[in-house]
Amino acid sequence: MFDKNYRIGLRAIKTAISVMLCLAISFVLGRPDGFFSSTAAIICMQQTTDKTFDTGIHRLLGTAVGGTLGYISLIILQNFTDTQNVINVFLAPFLILFMIYFSNVINHKASAQIGCIVLLGLLVDRDRSSLDAFFRVINRILDTSMGIVIAVLINKFVFPFGRDGIFGNKKSNETASLIDKCDENQDR
To answer: Is 65 within 8 Å of 111 (Cβ atoms)?
Structure first.
């Protein structure tokens, strides 16, 4: 049931550092909060810098497409305030299907989930004007971008050694064994 031998891996440490930086930068820049940049950093942090970058691209694309689709829907529906709940019940599933379809057509299947979440978040939040929704989409894209950039930079430059050691230098068998053990525990 419990793994007494578990040790915190480097990816977990990099994730924590990324979240700390997202929260600190959000505070310094006066952003509303650091939630979206931090979640982007958490989700994007992968075993390699390339995988982190790829995950970030999917997340950013899904956020942009889902946000744009949600914003356009809000503009069209702004005159139907009395029946918005009923319209959402029938419209949301079709828009979700379109988001999934579009993500597949442009060969970015991994963008579909976050796109659907952003789209649905805009559709169900009835207490905001379309102008508020526009700024929410822009802020969401900015915050997501910040989290992605931080995750990629931390993954690349914090503990930058891999199989061949720091910056490609060969390392001893003992160090290789230690890194292998850390890699086994990377699943947080």
So the answer is: yes
- Nearest-CA neighbor of 83 among 126, 121, 49, 132? 126
Confidence of residue 32 (pLDDT cuts 50, 70, 90): confident
In angstroms, what CA-CA distances link 59 with 17, 89, 147, 167?
20, 26, 10, 29
Q: Which of 22-26, 127-131, 166-170, 180-184 is modeled with the greatest confidence?
A: 22-26
- Cα 86 → chain centroid: 30
- How many helices (H) and strands (E) are present in the chain, helices listed first? 7, 0
Given a contact cutoff of 8 angstroms between Cβ atoms, the answer to whether 63 and 116 are in contact is no
Amino acid at 24: A
Q: What is the pTM of this model?
A: 0.75
5: left (phi over 0), alpha (psi -120 to 50) or beta: alpha
Could you tell me which of 137, 9, 154, 18 has the C-alpha nearest to residue 73?
A: 137
Q: Domain ranges in the chain?
A: 10-157
